[in-house]
Amino acid sequence: MWHIEGGLGKNIAATSLIESLHDRYPDRKIIIVASYPDVFLNHRLIYRVYRIGNTQYFYDDYIKNKDTLVFRHEAYYESNHISKRKHIIDSWCKLMDLEYKNQMPVINFNLVQQRSSQKWIREKPIFLIQTNGGPFNSESAYSWARDIPFDISLKIAESMIKDYHVIQICKPSSRQIPGAEVISDQLSPIDLFLLLALSEKRLLIDSCLQHAASALNLPSAVLWIATSPANFGYTLHKNIIANPPEIEPKLPNSYLFDYSFDGVAYECPYYSTDEMFSIEEIIKSI
């Protein structure tokens, strides 16, 4: 049994090790308890999938007097992950005694899901831009630590809108790009993945879609600000890392990590978006 907490992107990353678990324990059935069970339902090597908090009779069925291996490790707190020396998948491998072989996430669509993808077809090829990520129900409209600053996303969209149908993925409270098709309602993971699969070009952030794009073998431009591709990225993508801040930041409340994912305002070490990225470099990478 493998227990996986956290956001959608973390659950997608975990799919990379299903086959490795099967190869390591070929005589055992794989049971997943996850915060996003939809991600795992179409994997043929998985025996059962449960949502965290919806595990009625789990102890009686799988633990009591059973020869069950339980993996409930938090890779975020593994030393090499904290030090940004290893990818989260590599950290999981160490914790679960698996060989790290640069495994990639896996997303499968069943027949019905494949046919439902037609609703995402547009007259022009799709340019997909995820401007905002993190918890959907968060009150914060913008996290400087990983969201795309609005003036940058606006200029990128303006450069693409002549030849592409621009679709923006964001939260309801986020600023919307004029002229873009804005998706701020919470889609199911499968719907989100199907839209991604039909996109022609993509500008993403350190959030669920860059993990999903790697699973679908869709090279994308990915912006990184306060998080690191060494921990969460994939070499398939064009990873564009923000310039180092000109002034050393002060982080009085930081413990094991430098910046928090939700982008606490006083931690931001930048004074303008020009310090972060070159728009020309981003457009070229797309």
Question: What would you say about this model in short?
Answer:
It contains 11 helices and 9 strands.
Distance between the termini: 40 Å
Flag low-confidence runs: none
Could you describe the largest sheet, including whether it forms a barrel?
Answer: 6 strands, parallel
Quaternary state, please?
A: single chain
Main β-sheet, spatial strand arrangement: 6-5-4-7-8-9
The outline comes out as globular
Helix fraction, binned, reads 25-40%
Summing up helix and strand content along with how strands pair, one would put the structural category as alpha/beta
Task: Explain how this protein is built.
The chain is of the alpha/beta class. The protein has 2 domains: 2-96; 119-285, Rossmann fold (3-Layer(aba) Sandwich). 28% of the residues lie in helices and 14% in strands. It contains 11 helices and 9 strands.
Question: What descriptive keywords fit this protein?
Answer:
alpha/beta, 286 residues, 2 domains, Rossmann fold, globular
